[in-house]
Design a protein that fits this description.
By secondary structure, this protein is of the alpha/beta class. The protein has one domain: Response regulator (Rossmann fold, 3-Layer(aba) Sandwich). Helix content is about 35%, strand content about 20%.
Amino acid sequence: MTLPRDDDDLDLPCHAWDDGSASVTPDQLKAVIVDDDEMMRRLVRSALKSFGLTQIHAAENGADGLELARREMPDIIIADYHMPEMHGLELVKGVRENEALDRTVIIMLSAADEHEVIEGARQLGADTFMVKPFERPALKQLIDTLYHRFNCAKIAWSA
């Protein structure tokens, strides 16, 4: 299950000044993975690498993830909901309070498919929510759509 910030958000056009020609390559994107499960961090990293991303950083808890996001200024954050020290919702809130990170795409992951969890993530500023396990094509499509929506640039995927 995925849930955008607003049901219509993904269909809105970019800013009027954008001619739609801007593009970036995956290796220009910076991603931060935040998950206390090492295997999940590896799976997400592997998926991102298969999409062509090379600038991938990871943290094992929300507090370290927020610090990493502030330092690295990522284009994409993929974070677990349940984590020690600082859970995913606190991470989302901390990221959204930082103006420099306002165009960062935030994808929340959780094994729980609970309405309260999804709605809480949405209200605090998560762009979408994916239930684990996720499928790589779905993750790639979400990254592509959300990045374009918030940065008015298309990702020039190689494959």
